[in-house]
Amino acid sequence: MIRSVVRGFGTALPKRVLTNRELESMVDTSDEWIVQRTGIRQRYIAGEGETTASLGAEAARAALDRAGLSPADIDLIIVATSTPDNTFPATAVNIQNRLGMSHGYAFDMQAVCSGFVYAMATADAYIRGGMARRVLVIGAETFSRILDWTDRTTCVLFGDGAGAVVLEALEGEGTVADRGVLTSQLRSDGAHRDKLYVDGGPSTTGTVGHLRMEGREVFKHAVGMITDVIVAAFDATGLSVDDLDWMVPHQANRRIIDGSAKKLGIPLEKVVVTVDLHGNTSAASIPLALAAAAGDGRIKEGDLVLLEAMGGGFTWGAVLLRW
Ligand code: UT7
């Protein structure tokens, strides 16, 4: 049985760090409020010349280096983003070009904060379906460019960055002891559109628009939706929380992360948290957190790793994989 195994990972962050203290001089907020309500202490903000594609390409190069591969080895690039460089062409083909590739194919995936989970599930399906052997899966965002910097309820929450993994086809036994993606559980419900959306777009206003969120409403749904797909992932594999080595959640809010882990009985020592450093980087947050924990040796070969996210749409999902 073909499995999609993580062979390399990499990240890219903008040069500029924006601290909570600096935000205090921009909107009516405080470091104490932001830390207490979200766990965020700082975020990175893209400057001139830094875009979703430039950050995504940098993360992709780092992932290829770590895998000991070159762009020539890649068949497919999937970029999860809601902040593309242009309405079209896709940021994925922009990155393909930056990597000097003119073979293979590349496309974007738009599932907002769940984008990386959707992209991993898609890459796995393409690999198992025989349509690609090696896939670059990238989560890259510049949410700073769609924030209303006068709205304190949203502008303190998000940041920019990118993370990438190389997924590679490997022969497995078809058991849960195999390395690679074991199951993906994806969900969406468009009825929740108004709770988290961007108030512009090519076919409506003809503008890019700004992010709008009813934070409390999103919060109310988050823990329940996240835990539902995680339970579905365990049910699909016959594995349980006791088998889990690491939970790598989407990094939106420390309270959502802790609440989900607690509801499932996952000890907090097994949860990777980077929201303090990066803020909410939407589709980039999971690969950034994954790279942090794999890079410092916490996640080791053979570990059972759970990825989960919930975001605009609403979309939500979980991927269970063996590292
Ligand atoms: O990435 C996926 C999707 N996004 C999320 O998962 C985000 C989900 N939501 C959240 O993380 C939280 O709801 C927030 C962090 C956005 C807000 O936390 P909360 O505990 O739900 O606060 P709240 O919205 O209920 O606001 C509490 C108070 C309000 O004042 P009043 O009405 O109680 O007087 C807000 O006006 O905090 C006020 N407030 C702020 N105060 C200082 C809102 N934003 C700020 C701020 N600084 N930046």
TrEMBL record:
Enzyme superclass (EC): transferase
Gene3D superfamilies per the UniProt record, alphabetical: 3.40.47.10
Domain Beta-ketoacyl-[acyl-carrier-protein] synthase III C-terminal, chain residue ranges per copy: 235-323
Domain Beta-ketoacyl-[acyl-carrier-protein] synthase III N-terminal as annotated: residue spans: 107-190
Catalytically driven reaction(s): malonyl-[ACP] + acetyl-CoA + H(+) = 3-oxobutanoyl-[ACP] + CO2 + CoA
Keyword field: Acyltransferase, Cytoplasm, Fatty acid biosynthesis, Fatty acid metabolism, Lipid biosynthesis, Lipid metabolism, Multifunctional enzyme, Transferase
GO CC annotation: cytoplasm
Domain notes: The last Arg residue of the ACP-binding site is essential for the weak association between ACP/AcpP and FabH.
Function in brief: Catalyzes the condensation reaction of fatty acid synthesis by the addition to an acyl acceptor of two carbons from malonyl-ACP. Catalyzes the first condensation reaction which initiates fatty acid synthesis and may therefore play a role in governing the total rate of fatty acid production. Possesses both acetoacetyl-ACP synthase and acetyl transacylase activities. Its substrate specificity determines the biosynthesis of branched-chain and/or straight-chain of fatty acids.
Name of the protein this chain belongs to: Beta-ketoacyl-[acyl-carrier-protein] synthase III
Gene encoding the protein: fabH
